[in-house]
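Input structure tokens:
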């Protein structure tokens, strides 16, 4: 066996250094996410955003953890998700799995931003989100944004996404990320409010096409710090060992890791 050349030794050293830097970056991201997840109520910092009054809709915004939801709230949240999304899932290659969607929605890590009528307390819509590490980056991942049909195009969905962004930036997340089904015409809502195709979104080719795309909005404070990674057309996300879909009615669909 020949001796290592100086060039190959230097290259190996560089690879080890890059690997260490990447590992440290992920540890740092996990620490930031852990701090965010310790916060009892991330909405409390934004009292002005706990009320919505526009286009005839007057709503209170409240925060709940998955374990803090009442049984009635759980039934309402899942029924709204099913009403809005089941057909879209069934019409995609993902298909609809009631058990998987229920497990995902009420996972112990799930957090909820809920809109209730200020007049009669009726539930109007919700976002299911989580602080998480995705692609090695600390993010707020929007799993769902679900509103009753009659509340669409009244500004409430946009308002709720603004709240998610405020909570994300306040807690040093580098992105807000979500997944949308391509067959969901309402997904254009997210692009209209500034969400763009994320570099991790898979690319269709002649061998494979994907039913979803991943969108994100970058925290401008950290834009220059974000690592660049090549788009991987075989990029497949999974969460808790099951593939995830997303779509929205005003919504994102599932989260992939």
């Amino acid at each position: 066996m020949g001796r290592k050349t100086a060039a190959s030794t230097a290259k190996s050293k560089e690879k080890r250094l890059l690997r260490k830097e990447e590992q440290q970056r992920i540890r740092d991201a996990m620490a930031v996410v852990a701090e965010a997840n310790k916060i009892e109520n991330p909405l409390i910092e934004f009292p002005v955003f706990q009320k919505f009054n526009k286009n005839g809709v007057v709503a209170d915004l409240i925060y709940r953890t998955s374990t803090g939801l009442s049984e009635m709230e759980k039934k309402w949240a899942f029924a709204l998700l099913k009403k809005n999304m089941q057909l879209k899932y069934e019409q995609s290659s993902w298909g609809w799995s009631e058990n998987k969607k229920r497990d995902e929605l009420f996972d112990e890590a799930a957090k909820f931003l809920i809109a209730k009528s200020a007049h009669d307390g009726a539930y109007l819509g919700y976002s299911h989100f989580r602080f998480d590490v995705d692609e090695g980056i600390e993010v707020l991942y929007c799993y769902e944004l679900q509103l009753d049909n009659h509340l669409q195009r009244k500004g409430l969905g946009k308002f709720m996404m603004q709240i998610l962004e405020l909570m994300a930036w306040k807690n040093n997340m580098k992105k807000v990320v979500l997944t949308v089904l391509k067959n969901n015409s309402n997904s254009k809502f997210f692009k209209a409010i500034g969400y763009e195709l994320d570099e991790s979104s898979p690319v269709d080719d002649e061998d494979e096409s994907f039913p979803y795309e991943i969108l994100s909005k970058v925290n401008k404070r950290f834009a220059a710090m974000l690592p660049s990674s090549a788009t991987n057309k075989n990029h497949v996300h999974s969460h808790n060992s099951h593939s995830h879909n997303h779509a929205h009615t005003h919504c994102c669909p599932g989260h992939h890791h």
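Residues 6-38 form the longest helix (33 residues). The first strand starts at residue 51 and ends at 54.
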